[in-house]
Amino acid sequence: MKKIVKYSLLFILAIVCSAGIFFAGVYFGVFGHLYTKEELRDFKNESASLVLAENGELLGKYFVQNRTNVKFHQIPTHLINALLATEDVRFYEHEGVDARSLMRVLVKSIIFQQESAGGGSTLTQQLAKNMYGRKSFGPLTTAVNKSKEIILANRLEELYNKQDILQLYLNTVPFGEDIYGVESAARRYFNKQVEELNQEESAVLVGMLKANTYYNPRLYPEHALQRRNTVLDQMFKYDFIDEREKDSLQLLPIRLDYANLKNQGKANYFLVHIKRELEKIIDSINLKEGTSYNIYTDGLIVQTSLNLEMQLYALTAYQKHLSKMQPLLDRQYSKGSDKKILTSLSEEILNKGNFQDVGKRKKREIFSWEGFRSDSITVLDSIRRDLSVLHAGMLGLEPNTGAIKVWVGGIDFRRYPYDQIFAQRQIASTFKPILYAAALENGINPCNYISNDSLVLTDFDNWTPKNYDNSFGGKYSVAAALAKSMNIPTVRLFLSLPFAELHTMWNDLGFSQHLETNPSVALGTSIASIYELTRAYAAFANGGKKIQPYGIVSIKSAEGETIYQYKDVKNDEQVMSESTSMMMTAMLRKAVSEGTGKAISSQFGVTKEIAGKTGTSQDYADAWFAGFTPNLVLVSRVGCNSPSLHFNTGALGSGGKLALPLVGYTFRNLQGNKKLSSQYLTNFAPMSEEALESFICEDYIEDSDFEKFFDKIFNNPEMTSEKAAKKAQKETKKKESFFKKLFKKRN
Fold first, then answer.
1. What confidence tier does 2 reach under pLDDT thresholds 50, 70, 90?
2. Where is this chain's protein located in or outside the cell (predicted)?
3. Which of 644, 638, 651 lies closest to 321 in space, CA to CA?
């Protein structure tokens, strides 16, 4: 018996000595660097930068780890109680290590080599693990990591008070779905800030700490409910809540308000653009100040100019209008020759690509305006569906400052991330105001008349421009020709203007593409983006000045220090005279009240003063509308990715039918918002007497009998239809022009 006792004691002593030597080896860095107190004191959580809308609401984040740090006072008491009751009820009694469970854990991990020895880690030890992670040491992995965490926990307790440790812990702990910290978790699962969490929501989040995927309330709601109720049981057990409160809370269902900003944000396309703008600003600050700010890790607070109400109005317009137009296009391409065109184009793309198992059906996610759905389709079916999708972009900004207010870069960021705001497409008749502005700058008067006689350009392969309704004959005033988007007079105006004047105007307005000298340019064959066109139209609204759009108003550090403030740039670069700008605005108001944009008032009920221009590119490939007030410019474009696919008729595919409604719905909702309406739907400034006089003329005058005879003999007689004659006759009855009506009292 003595020998048994002797050898048992020796065995225990050997174990203790071995454990001591092992622990000493960990302490002195035999198993890798152990962080010092100085390093622990300097520890800084990586924190996501927040991007805020004009009203301070969160739009999105930039991060390596999706984390937003919060202060202790922001964390609800019931969340702290749930955490302590579930994870470390003796937290305020120990100094980093719970002695009661320490031996149990060491025996299990060292003697029995159990990787899941757990159950003994205090919150401070868990914090050490969250701060620096764990590494592999073969069969000693668990023992080494546990020992390191014990040493680090002790050091943390010496450096920080209990509140600091709880704050650090709740800012570092993972909650699944690549999010870290309780603030990010509150926003993700309940779409609220951490201080707004109620008691049962806090219990759900604390319950996730045991296994954040298995207890994810979105993926496994039944697991999350069970675990939440366990947390509530623990809170009752340790007197944080009474039995009645526990029972009532356990009866409640889990109500999520899931908000994955990365996929479902209100302004994801805008966030991509802002990130580029932010990177340039931060690089400039770091270079100038010698700082090292990082947009992904330093928790910057980025205030933007985006107006969230207006943005939501635009998104509503997309849903309302495009959900109606998409089925009509789908129906067109479901039969006959159109179906063959779509299939042929799809097969061409398929043959060029490197696709696997092209004939095999598999579950694929399909976009629709009713929401994403899964269907078993082939690769060819998927390509065919994507090709016939109507894409759209809309940009809104303040013409006097360049502040971006609306940015909708597409129909769905997750499925179609390419930003339509920057797509280069034919701008069609939205180009015409640029031509007319150049003409006004060159001495043309709004009441100068331009012949509408048919025209054959022998120097350009006998090209014959035609009006939208195939009419010809008579003469249109410059103002009326633009308002009614007449093609023949526009081409004649182009031919009468020195090309250098137009080219200068095009470049000064900020367009990036080369402007061709071909007369077809007059009708909008040049390409440009929504971004460029919006900036150009701002010059019509702001007195002829060139502006630079911007989205970032200010940037603050995580500590709240302002490191960047946008300074209002005085836009003094005149790209056209103020008088030309005012006359163009008046002509484009006429285009909305009497011309191709009149649906703004007749269909959408917008009674405020709006100026604008529609555009329809060749074969209805792209539909455009640019509308503006003195304080807001809105430009939209709609079309398939391939210009080969489009509506076959103007009744569906013209700018007035396909693009204008996006702006129309947005303006209508703005009009119903008293605050925004008073700010952005204001009246245009009155015109000077001299400018008014330049508009007092008839829109249309008929040719003389001699001119009619001459045109009939020499200018394409087959085009003189009864319809065109009646139209011309009708136009002559308009004795009082738009401008006489508009300024009658003033005159």
1. confident
2. Cell membrane
3. 638
